[in-house]
Structure formats: structure tokens, C-alpha cells
Write a structure and sequence with these properties.
Blueprint lengths: L9 H15 L3 H18 L1 H12 L3 H27 L2 E3 L8 E9 L2 E5 L7 H12 L3 E5 L5 H14 L5 E3 L4 H7 L6 E5 L2 H13 L3 E5 L5 E4 L5 H13 L11 E5 L3 H16 L15 H16 L3 E4 L3 E2 L4 E2 L2 E4 L16 E7 L2 H9 L6 E5 L3 H9 L5 E4 L20 E2 L4 H7 L1 E9 L14 H13 L1
Parallel strand pairs: 3-4, 3-6, 4-5, 6-7, 8-9, 8-15, 9-14, 13-14, 15-16
Antiparallel strand pairs: 1-2, 2-18, 7-17, 10-13, 11-12
Helix pairs in contact: 2-3, 2-4, 3-4, 3-6, 4-5, 5-14, 9-10
Length: 470
């Protein structure tokens, strides 16, 4: 590793690299003890501080902080503790008859030193979630949290420093150049959560060291609503899923494709639920958050201004208060196909509504774009639902709801192609941070030994019979 000695994080990496096999050989009880420490810290010691940091960075309401940050972490830990003993067992598999005299199994072994680069939208959840999987799988880890949520990042650094030695888990704070330096090091696995654009940079850097990656990305996640849907129920769940955390969620509904016959009724229902959730003036609601930074507020404002220039219809919202980093919950219809809000992942409180006449037309539109992280279907028609799922591709799907698939620890979470590579959560997160090692044990003389050189006509005949029958 001489080529990396000038890297300012090489010493930290080396400490973890030297310690990786000690951690990798840790027992079930030792790993659970670490998870217990993290659970107590989040659930008790630092719970109030976590909520304060989230409010300072994102204006996140306390209930949202509990449900989208604290709860998922505690749930992840409880799930891992319940099933870790089973995950760590060797997994026996069948051995072909041609390998008579041998037995086969595989084990999950730690990958080694891992890098976790986490985002700003759910800083604690999307940092400690991968860390839980890394710990469960017996790895060491260096964490690079987002600089865009400084209060959350500083608190995470404090928590990790109190709980772990730096040769096991460490936090490195800083700007983009910190990530750039870390990505030069030969990690054994990188877990990145963020945009597809940055995901490509991470994957390119990982390729130089042939480092495996898990990329949790994003994209334009569509909602398809057919004419059989319960419109009021659909509006309620879509408004909740879209405007939670001000729409700054990787699995947030990005746009609606609705049958033209129910568009008016649906928009009316959306307006009703917006008022129900956030009152007539969301800027004064304690249930509605804020945009993370001026940079993102300017990006979202540009989408709104572009839609206005193209004479789109603003069904509700469109107001921006830069001083307060506030953008009103916004619903837009009658959009020109060139509107920027239809071309880029929104990641904010803007919901475009498009209409369709035939389901095939709707499916074709979805398939004309990159494969999304999530796809949502609202329908009472089983045939339509099956048709949509069979003829589209997405990382995950909810039927008659939004975003809740993320909360099921028994399901794999992740994207496909531009929306992500690899899966996480529960066993799938444990697997992502593990190497599945194949092992064959020879107990007696093996049948294949009779086919060793020197070759003869008899062995040639035996080889053909082996191919035919075994």
C-alpha cells in the first residue's frame, strides 16, 4: 500500500486494516454487544440531541425525526439481533454425485475495511443503517457524513467516538475533497447513498481498486393511478409520501401519471389533504420542514420558474421564501414536455401531474426514462396492477401506498441500474457487507481422482459417461 502513504487518511485506514481480522472473527455475542451500545445511544443517551440537530439542519418536525430517523435505526438493530445468529451460521448445500465423498457449504465472512458515505436528507438513519449491517457482518468502517447537515454530522462523530475505538469505527467530517481523498484508498467495500451523478464518480473510483460497491441512488419514481383507484385514499397517501421531509426523500413520488377521467377529482382531494396535514399556510405549520440549503432551494426555484415560463398550471403552491429556506407544497399540471421538472429528479416539494388515456401509453412513458428506485400503483384492478409490474422495472414497488416498503426489514431495498446497485436492509444489508465464501471438504477418496492423468481410452469413456449421467 505504499502508493497511498501520502493520503492523509492512510493512517486511519491502516489502523482499521490491521484490525480487520480481529473484528472479522468476532462472535455473535460480541457483535450484539456493539449493536446494543449503538441502540442505547440512539434510543436514550443522544435521542434529544438527535432531534435538535435535525431541526437545526432541516427544520425537521419532532414526530418526523422520531419516525424517520430514530425508529428505523432501532428497528434495524432489533431485527439484526434477532436474526444474526442464523445469518452467521454456515449454510450447507447439496454436493453433486460426481463429487462423491465430499460435502459443501458456504459461510458469510467480513469483507474488511468499509467506507460508508452517507447523505443529508436522513443523516442518522442513512448513516447508522449501513453501519448496523457492517457491524453485524464483522467489518471495520470509516464514515463520511454529509457536510450539508453539520449539526447531525458533528453529533454522529461524537456518538461514534464515545462508542468505538477508531481502529474499528471512525467518522471523518469535511467537504467534497474529503470524500475524494477517502475514495482513493483500497477499501474492501464502499456503501454510498446519494445521487446517480455522484454514484458514477464513486463507482469509477472504486473500480481503480476493484472495490465492491453498494450504491443507493435515486431517480424519478412514478405513481400510476388508474380509473378504478380509491381517489381520496390515493391522494392522502401520495401527499404524505411526497411532502414528508419536504420531498427530500430518495423514494419520494416524483410525478403522477393519472387517468385523464379522474384528474380533477384527484387534484381536489390532494388540496384537501394538504390543508388537513399542513393547514392553509404550510409556512406556519410545525409539521412541515425546510429545504436543506440555499443551493437546493435555488435548484427547486428554477424548476418552479421554468414551469411558470412554460405556462403550466399551478394547482397549489409555488411560493418560495429564500430567507426561511421554504418552498410551499406545490402541485403542477398541464406541463410542457420540455419542463425541467419532468427531466431531472426533483428531490423537493413539487409534484407534477400528467394524464394518460390508455395504460400502454402510461407504461411506455415510464419505460422511456431511467429505471426508478420506486414505482407506485394505485388501483383496484388486479389485472392492471399485474400488467404494470410485469412491463416495468423498478427497485421496489408499493401498491395502494407510498414509501412504506422501505420500512420492511424483511425486504431488500435498493435500485436497479441508474437508481442503484446492490441491496440493503436486514439480511440483505448483512449480505452486502459480507463475502459469501464457498467451501468444499473432501472426506474420502473422490470419484474425480479416477479421471486424473495419464488419460486413456477408458478414462475418456468415463468422462463421457460422467457428462451424460452426472
Amino acid at each position: 500500500m505504499a502508493d497511498f502513504k501520502n493520503n492523509r487518511y492512510f493512517d486511519l485506514f491502516s489502523k482499521q486494516n490491521d484490525h480487520q481480522f480481529v473484528v472479522g472473527k468476532s462472535t455473535y455475542s460480541e457483535r450484539v454487544e456493539k449493536l446494543n451500545k449503538l441502540q442505547y445511544a440512539v434510543e436514550h443517551t443522544f435521542r434529544a440531541q438527535i432531534k435538535t440537530a435535525l431541526f437545526k439542519d432541516l427544520g425537521k418536525p419532532e414526530v418526523e425525526a422520531e419516525l424517520t430517523e430514530v425508529y428505523p435505526i432501532i428497528g434495524d438493530i432489533k431485527h439484526a439481533k434477532t436474526y444474526l445468529h442464523k445469518w452467521m451460521r454456515k449454510q450447507k448445500v447439496k454436493t453433486p454425485l460426481a463429487m462423491l465423498g465430499a460435502s459443501s457449504y458456504y459461510t458469510y465472512e467480513s469483507k474488511g475495511v468499509c467506507l460508508i458515505i452517507s447523505p443529508w436528507n436522513f443523516p442518522f438513519n442513512l448513516t447508522f443503517g449501513p453501519l448496523i449491517s457492517a457491524i453485524a457482518a464483522g467489518n471495520t468502517a470509516i464514515i463520511k457524513p454529509s457536510e450539508m447537515t453539520p449539526h447531525a454530522s458533528a453529533l454522529m462523530a461524537k456518538i461514534i467516538k464515545e462508542l468505538f475505538k477508531e481502529d474499528e469505527v471512525a467518522v471523518v467530517e469535511g467537504e467534497v475533497e474529503v470524500s475524494t481523498e477517502l475514495l482513493k484508498l483500497p477499501f474492501h467495500h464502499i456503501f454510498f447513498t446519494g445521487s446517480p451523478t455522484v454514484g458514477k464518480i464513486v463507482m469509477s473510483a472504486a473500480a481503480k481498486n476493484l472495490t465492491s460497491v453498494t450504491l443507493e441512488l435515486g431517480g424519478k419514481s412514478p405513481i400510476i393511478i388508474d380509473e378504478t383507484a380509491n381517489i381520496d385514499m390515493a391522494a392522502k397517501k401520495i401527499i404524505w409520501g411526497k411532502f414528508l421531509n419536504c420531498g427530500q426523500i430518495c423514494v419520494a413520488p416524483d410525478y403522477v401519471l393519472i387517468h385523464q377521467s379522474i384528474k380533477t377529482e384527484f387534484i381536489a382531494a390532494c388540496k384537501k389533504w394538504l390543508i388537513n396535514f399542513y393547514r392553509a399556510h404550510p409556512s406556519t405549520s410545525k409539521s412541515y420542514g425546510r429545504i436543506v440549503s440555499n443551493k437546493h432551494l435555488e435548484r427547486l426555484s428554477a424548476h418552479i420558474n421554468n414551469a411558470k415560463d412554460l405556462k403550466a398550471t399551478f394547482e397549489v403552491g409555488g411560493e418560495v421564501n429564500a430567507d426561511d429556506k421554504y418552498i410551499a407544497p406545490t402541485i403542477i399540471s398541464d406541463l410542457n414536455e420540455n419542463a425541467t421538472v419532468l427531466k431531472e429528479e426533483i428531490f423537493g416539494p413539487i409534484l407534477p401531474i400528467l394524464t394518460y388515456d390508455a395504460l400502454d401509453e402510461c407504461i411506455a412513458y415510464v419505460n422511456s426514462k431511467d429505471r426508478p428506485l420506486a414505482l407506485y400503483v394505485f388501483s383496484k384492478h388486479k389485472g392492471n396492477t399485474k400488467t404494470i409490474i410485469a412491463n416495468t422495472r423498478a427497485g421496489g414497488t408499493c401498491i395502494n401506498n407510498t414509501i412504506i416498503h422501505y420500512a420492511n426489514h424483511h425486504l431488500p431495498f435498493g435500485g436497479v441500474n441508474t437508481s442503484g446497485i446492490g441491496k440493503s436492509h436486514g439480511f440483505f444489508g448483512f449480505e452486502a457487507f459480507s463475502n459469501k465464501r464457498a467451501i468444499v471438504k473432501q472426506h474420502t477418496i473422490g470419484a474425480t481422482e479416477f479421471l486424473f492423468p495419464p488419460y486413456s481410452k477408458f478414462k475418456e469413456k468415463m468422462a463421457r459417461l460422467t457428462i451424460k449421467w452426472f
